[in-house]
Design goal:
This protein is mostly beta strands. The chain has no helices and nine strands. The radius of gyration is 12 Å and the shape is globular.
């Protein structure tokens, strides 16, 4: 289950690790488009959704099953990332 936005921990853009389903918050919305490298080592569904400062998500950055490693684009205005996972995950923004 995804945690609420009000309890989302504030994280940076450098390499961050987590486990399971979680919402993280950036200190301020992302300016411009950024590359994001994401990994997951679980066995089940893995979703990553960017959300703006109001918590609105329009699409999934990632929607995979099992182990995943890839780079995608984090859209401008992203302030939250919602991870739905059954394993460990990491991300780093460049």
């Amino acid at each position: 289950m995804i945690s609420s936005l009000s309890s989302a921990p504030v994280k940076g853009l450098k390499k961050i690790a987590g486990h399971g389903s979680q919402v993280i918050k950036f200190a301020k919305p992302i300016s411009g488009f950024k590359k994001i490298l994401i990994t997951h080592n679980g066995e089940s569904n893995f979703y990553v959704r960017p959300m703006n400062s109001r918590g609105v998500a329009t699409y999934s950055l990632i929607n995979e099953i099992g182990i995943y490693k890839g780079t995608t684009i984090l859209p401008a205005g992203t302030q939250y990332l919602a991870f739905e996972a059954d394993g460990d995950w990491t991300y780093s923004v460049s």
